[in-house]
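User: Predict the complex.
Assistant: Input components as received:
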Amino acid sequence: KAGVTQTPRYLIKTRGQQVTLSCSPISGHRSVSWYQQTPGQGLQFLFEYFSETQRNKGNFPGRFSGRQFSNSRSEMNVSTLELGDSALYLCASSPQGPATNEKLFFGSGTQLSVL
Amino acid sequence: DQQVKQNSPSLSVQEGRISILNCDYTNSMFDYFLWYKKYPAEGPTFLISISSIKDKNEDGRFTVFLNKSAKHLSLHIVPSQPGDSAVYFCAATGRGGGSNYKLTFGKGTLLTVNP
């Protein structure tokens, strides 16, 4: 079974631009979560989607948005990029979503650099 | 408000000895706890988990202990091996209080196992 696939692997953008990141979950997994990792800050939760519905959202500005398609694939978009958005963006999937006795499977991430 | 805390940013141990990584949490709604291991520029990999109905879970060299009254958990690695060198993240999830459908992560502990 293929793992969680994230594209692109690396991305370089300039301030003010926008970016779209893609995530394909493990086959059969309906929940997709997104996290941002910056040095020293651990993994910060962005949002979680299940059956095309956002069920939870972290404390990020409205410039960060996401969506999920009917085949469970997900995208996240960041508009008007700022230098502080430089981070590793991680996508994770699971059958039903983060809950008791259900773990998340992570992709390798997209490393975004904003210049 | 940091609901999951890993107070030791780093830990260094000798090969063959025990590694003990600690984690504290504040949200009483958390009922499932996980440990992930992460190498640079890769996604986290699930290591071991524990439900709040248990106080210990063991998997090979890895054991997680949960003390609910103290809101504390620890990961024991015995014996430690150089390949265990990585960042270890503690994570938690639960029902209600905004903890649904997301994992809340600590900031991680960098474990270095010296040969």
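Chain A is about 0% helix and 50% strand.
Let me know if you want any component modeled separately.
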